[in-house]
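Hi C.,

You asked whether I'd gotten around to modeling the 296-residue construct. I have! Everything is below, sequence then structure, no commentary in between.
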Amino acid sequence: WLRYGETIRGTYGTGLDGCTTDESDFEKPLDEIWRELFQANEKPFRWLRRNNVPQYAWNGHAPEPRLTGWVVATPILKSGEYCAIFTNDTAITGRPCQSAQQDMLALFCGLLGQLLARREGKQRLALEGKSLQELHAESELQQRDALLQAVAFAAKRFFEDPAWESGAAEVLATLGHAAKVSRAYIFSQETTVDNRCLATYRYEWTALGVSPQLPTPGLTGLDLAAAGFLRWTEELSHNRIIDGPVHTFPASEQPLLRQQDIQSLLVVPIFARDRWWGFLGFDDCHTMRTWLAAEK
């Protein structure tokens, strides 16, 4: 859906026969519910569900009213900026909303936003006489392409195999190669009854010549706050990434990271539905790397 003033307009959707339809002529007023959904850039969310919303289905010529039901909206961000929303509902199937499927659709929307940004970037670089800044942007686009392919592979691998743990090593290897890092890994975390966050090193991939950290007894049930990583619990639990050269990190965090030969790292939180489950990490053990926007 795209917004035009006080109305919203469709683009493509699914008709009553299950086929893709051109819904560019489908317009409706921007009511209270849709206005809230189109404020995704002001109040970010992965996806948002609303119940008892009037349902419509495209019959090939016009919207056809259906029963009321749930609607889930997911924002599409292009280069960090809001550009549209993707919606799905129960108008045709009548099925209940499943969080796991919505999480997969949110991943799709993230990839779609990256692809839109990539297309615009290539169009800019098609002009003759590239500057140094444009050449740097071209390199970043190539890196983004590699990461998009890796993320798509990971999504496909996890979607096809519900027992995702069996494919974790393969996925980390794919992501590690694409990101050109020394080490890629997954930590899980458990919050105790006294509100301590205990992190455990679960899965790992390392590049040739890089020392593995699995298994390391000190990285099992690690009390993050006691180990000097209170900042990590606060940032990651609020769905914010941590990145940069280690020498710029607080002094309490540096000793453990330097023990692992880490020069720079990128850590991304993992959420299972609305619960902070753990984090995905990437280490560079050779350079004090500044992470590209495409990598984040």
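If it helps when you're writing up: The chain has a mean pLDDT of 79.

Thanks,
B.
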